[in-house]
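dude i think i finally got it to work??
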Amino acid sequence: MTNTPQANGFWAQWRASLRAALADKGVLLMALLAPVLYGFFYPWPYSLQVVQRVPVAVVDLDGSSLSRQITRYAQAAPQLDVRLVTGNPAAAREALWRGQVQGIATLPADLKRDVARGAAVVVPVEGNGAYLLLNKTALTGFMGAIGTVSGGIELRRLQAGGLSPAQAAQARAPLSMDEVSLFNPTQGYGAYVVPAVAWLIAQQTLLIAAAMLAGRWRERGQLGTSARGWWGRIAAMALWGLASGAFYLGWVTVLQGYPRGANLGGALVLLALFAPAVAALGLLLGVWLRQREYSMYVLLATSLPAAFLSGAFWPSEALPAPLRALAQLLPSTAGMQAGVQLAQIGATLRDVPLSWRRWAPSHWAARRCWCGVRRHQRGPRPPLSERMARGRTSCLRKQLSFLIQPL
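look at this
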């Protein structure tokens, strides 16, 4: 299929690309509808921010007033919901296996007697390791309840030694610590994960949309254009990324109550660099892939690896060197890290690792798009033997021309 002639200027291709995107239902779905749906449904599971009232069991093997006090403190803890109090460890483990409880605290026999003697007592706490957040919350709740009771016992001992209540409190904790969450006041999981993942969602939806649009051009023989035309196409697709990024930076963070607006201007500058880089890579993939549908299959599978390579959820230093190098080719790596620092923490552009080499893939992708299409227009490359024969013929012609000229 030969490419049809069309205007190759920047603005002509910019307008043509926007019209093509609006006319293509698949591209419009990924570029417009998908970011909006993700903005509603992705933060929804994290709307509670923190896990509370985890069902747990208490195995009381002591039956003393001290063990009952620990049980009452566990029932009062906001993290715990004591569903079962029993003296049978097997019954508690059976409830854990059935999923009826997510944690078990076993109060050992002779607990009160050992505490009265001043001996160290170990209270085993078990959790369901299959659910990390539930396990952590159950362990934290039991630790707080047992620690509170233990602190009260220690204070009474110090007061029995002749200290006043204030002196006993000072002796028990000579150094006080106030914990203040600066950038995640609720210490919620949603405020931690959604602002970073929003940049990844903007990248993946724009990548798929741009690749599908390039696939449509390939199918219709409309890939060919000038270098300025390709920049116009990149600019047109970048508009969709700018819209989705602004949607996440503004409406989603306001609706969900996430920390926001710390350095909105810097975040918008980052977005203005981020969107063209993603659009260029998406168009390049669309040129490379043979069929339009392949872009959906290939790029959907890259979402989770891109999240782990970004360094937002797994330390980059823990990755092998080849994976760290691969991560630098993805706009999401710099976008997720710098975006959170700018929009949520309030960093300046000088504080974030915003070097030009991280956005070089956009220029490289645009160049490869143009070169790849030019090669496609010229047809398949001839074999090496034919190219060598042409080279020898050209060289011989130059030599003959040189010899004939003096005559």
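The CA atoms of residues 56 and 238 lie 50 Å apart.
im so relieved honestly
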